[in-house]
Amino acid sequence: MNVAVMGYGTVGSGVVEIINRKDLGLTVKYILDLRDFPGDVNASKFTKDFNDILTGDVDIVVETMGGQHPAFEFVSQCLAAGKHVVTSNKELVAEKGLELITLAKENNVNFMFEAAVGGGIPVIRPLTFCLRANNIRSVNGILNGTTNFILTKMIKENMSFEDALKIAQDNGYAEKDPTADVEGHDACRKICILAALAFGNHVYPKNVHCEGITKIALEDVANVSGIGAIKLIGTAEKLPDGKLYILVSPAVVLSDRQLSAVSDVFNAVMIDGDATDEVLFYGKGAGSLPTASAVVADVLDCAEHSERRRPVFWGPEKPELIADYREVENKFYVRGAALDENLIDTKLNDDAYITKPITENALREKLDGEPASLIRVARL
Length: 380
Ligand code: HSE
Description:
Helices cover 33% and strands 23% of the residues. It has 380 residues and is of the alpha/beta class. It has two domains: 2-120 and 287-319, 3-Layer(aba) Sandwich (Rossmann fold); 128-284 and 324-377, 2-Layer Sandwich (Dihydrodipicolinate Reductase, domain 2), CATH 3.30.360.10. The strands form two sheets. Strands 7, 8, 9, 10, 11, 12, 13, 14, 15 and 16 form a ten-stranded mixed β-sheet that branches. The protein is globular and about 70 Å long. Bound molecules: L-homoserine (HSE). Residues 119, 144-146, 173-175, 181, 186, 285-286 line the site of L-homoserine. L-homoserine binds next to helix 6.
């Protein structure tokens, strides 16, 4: 089968490397990139013209360009031309996934995106196929390698935020604009994709509360160290009233929960199904070869099922089903504002404590002033 790779960055170059190093019955026919790569062993395959791929002898197109444009236009044209498409681009899937899976269905081709969530961790396929007998109750995950790497370095090595981010960038973990990592947007795109697969409706990132890790103080990390660890957690949970509690924010993960031990660039996704109970997926969430591994597996799936469409589908967004996260009861870590003793679950020290379950709106009304820090305790 002939493959074209659009975007020769961290992931795209890893895809070409894996296809070249292992006899998988795949041939890289074209590599599309506007940049020059003098001396690259794949020199004969480079093109700057998308039409070579669209009209050429290519069965499966890999999109590893990132961003929405021109990725969306290129992917749409490939699907409409009857080519299978595999992408690692979480922004594309979170923003345009519904349109693209619809287009793929209309053209009886596959649009696959295992690498878009959790890098090298198999989670999209297990959620879509292996767990389909369940009503999914919740999905919780550490979904961004860069922020988990930074938090780990801050906690274990007292390294500054900037130094840790620089290492993450040098290792190819971070997004081109690392704001997407540290402000939680990347994790938000991923929880939206998981929510669509788990609960059946598209969720657009703009409708999801999203907080990053930039306001976390070393003091907070130290305050909770006796009971757990602060992690950037993406949560999507079906509430008893049928609404979806979905958000991305730092959260205190208690020590007896497995996600509290997930460090460095590792990601983990905990899926709670009504038949299975909790199932945990763990592995490297970023980096060239781990992510390329997931892409190439999708390419092989397309190659082996080229006449058959994989049944990945969800419906349009229902924004009225998204709960107001501030009205959902939760425990909170608070520093720097007093609260009625009756509402406190655990005192950590003179300045910090964990509340009993309460909504964020009610808590803010009852606090004596603006807290220096207010972090939810993860619901898992
Ligand atoms: N920047 C992302 C991360 C890459 O750090 O997890 C993988 O999506």
